[in-house]
Amino acid sequence: MKTFWQLTLANAKDILRDKMSLFWFLAFPLLFVVLYGFIFANIGVQTMNIGVVSAVGSPTALYAQKVLTSIESFNIHEGTLEDELAELEKGKRSLVIDLSSVSFGESEITTYYVETKGSENQMAIAAVRLALAEAERIMTGQPRVFSIIATPITRTDVKEFDRLLPGILAMALMQLGIFGSMRTVSLRERKILKALGATPIPRTQVLASEIVVRLVLAVAQALLIVLVAVLAFGLTIVGSWLSILGAVLLGALTFVSLGYFLASFPKTQEAGVGIAQIVQFPMMFLSGIFIPIEIMPKSMKPVFDAIPLTYLGDLLRQIMVGAPPVYSPWVDVAVLLAWTVGSFILAIKFWRWE
Question: Taking the model in full, what pTM does it have?
Fold first, then answer.
């Protein structure tokens, strides 16, 4: 066991001497935190601009408008139909609601929206329907049949920076696992792995010491990122630190295993970096950590579902800031475990010492 810890310490010292690796593993993610922090930290809960065309002298229309105004996520703008539709075409309105034909009794309310903004439209229209249904119930004096007891599980008021920060952490763990594992390609190229394999030290200890160093570095990396986000940009943590630690370790193991599998094939470090980039960049932009999955084409859903970074980002968002889930936490954990085990088995199968 003493030999194992000495080997682990030697690996750690070797990584700490590599300034470029430290930049990519620690400084680069922090640059993302600072950049996105200055841009998004002061942006609160997103609101929707709603244009309303009122009916002059209609108490029913005025009451409906009052109910719409009471929705916190709506910024109500009153104007003529022509003016509000012009604002809608400019992208300055999410919806335009025409109340001009509303009278007491059954009325059809025409709502205008831009067809390309699918998810935003559905959210706004659903909120409008609920608000007007409640207004109708009150005006007609109908008794309430059902009563909703609100039991919050996930937050719907997550700030933009709070939503982005777990994605930055997920990206950092991916880089640590995939790019960090490419160090073994350099060791293989310089015949160091071959020399270690010829020593009495069990080969499992050689690889285990590398993995332990990656996991320790992942925890340090995550702690640094979260502390900077909390202290400098007011990140709100809602989950337990133990849960966050578990998600970080699971994510690090997933991408370390994937990294060692990918590191089995290149013969030079340059080729290894190329492979890492080919794998990393599509995952960064197709996993939802920066661009929400909801606004991407539905035809790409099989791609999102296949990427492990999708599940790590979703798990960290749920645990850290209580964001609405894309998948359940158990699905996220199960998929990450499957990727970890599968990548580890493939890494063992294709691993080369020279």
Answer: 0.66
